[in-house]
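Quick one:
INPUT:
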């Protein structure tokens, strides 16, 4: 089964008297453990695609199916539950809470899902270890580097054991070495957790670390091609 399936998804934004088509009959199927890069010029619709896949924006038409559930048929409450349980979202800016330690940033997500704080604490430490931050569990955001904050962000997104991971420009605020290690970490996470991962990126040099690359242009998405034969190889 595909973990994320966008079927004939069209998204129109109001634009003056008319509409502008941000996504034009987009199809994308991502399997568990598959890592897809999404590239394309500025304004082509990449962030819109992630927002629709995250069920944060309802498409004008088409289906968004997450782990077998058609999100387009759900109400707001059901959508919130689907997002919480199945979708991990990693944006460019980690948006960590300033007063919480790295471990607490993770634990609080389980509180929000109504899980036991005891198992949450153990899992938070495990995940921080996995992302290379075993020594930083008690540090607050201002005591962490940009790369470390992004690692906390990734660990936090994994707390719910999501089926789908949506990543928007994770390396935009980082230097080359840190960017490389973040994309390698995402590759590891994708493999280890068997999570379907879509990453929007401008850095085509990191595309070969992913399985496939799909290109967005004026709201139209090309079918994914193997990443080593795609833009990253040039
Ligand atoms: N809320 C909105 N209302 C109206 N138009 C919007 C809205 N959000 C995005 N758009 C338009 O939709 C198109 C796609 O935008 P989107 O942000 O998805 O592109 P992008 O490929 O992610 O761009 P970038 O690489 O610059 O982040 C653009 O023309 C943008 O101006």
């Amino acid at each position: 089964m595909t973990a994320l399936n966008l079927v004939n998804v069209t998204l129109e934004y109001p634009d003056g008297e008319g509409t502008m088509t941000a996504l034009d009959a987009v199809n994308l199927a991502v399997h568990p453990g598959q890592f897809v890069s999404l590239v394309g010029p500025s304004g082509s619709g990449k962030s819109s695609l992630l927002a629709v896949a995250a069920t944060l924006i309802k498409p004008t038409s088409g289906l968004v199916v997450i782990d077998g559930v058609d999100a387009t048929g759900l109400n707001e409450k059901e959508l919130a539950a689907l997002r919480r349980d199945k979708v991990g979202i990693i944006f460019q800016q980690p948006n960590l809470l300033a007063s919480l330690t790295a471990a607490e940033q993770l634990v609080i997500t389980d509180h929000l899902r109504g899980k036991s704080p005891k198992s949450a604490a153990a899992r938070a430490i495990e995940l921080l270890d996995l992302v290379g931050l075993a020594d930083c569990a008690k540090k607050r955001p201002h005591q962490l580097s940009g790369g470390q904050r992004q690692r906390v962000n990734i660990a936090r997104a994994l707390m719910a054991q999501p089926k789908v991971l949506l990543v928007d420009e994770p390396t935009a605020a980082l230097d080359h070495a840190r960017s490389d290690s973040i994309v390698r970490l995402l590759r590891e996470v994708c493999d280890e957790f068997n999570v379907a991962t879509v990453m929007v990126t401008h850095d085509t040099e990191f595309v070969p670390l992913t399985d496939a690359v799909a290109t967005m242009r004026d709201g139209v998405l090309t079918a994914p091609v193997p990443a080593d034969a795609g833009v990253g190889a040039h």
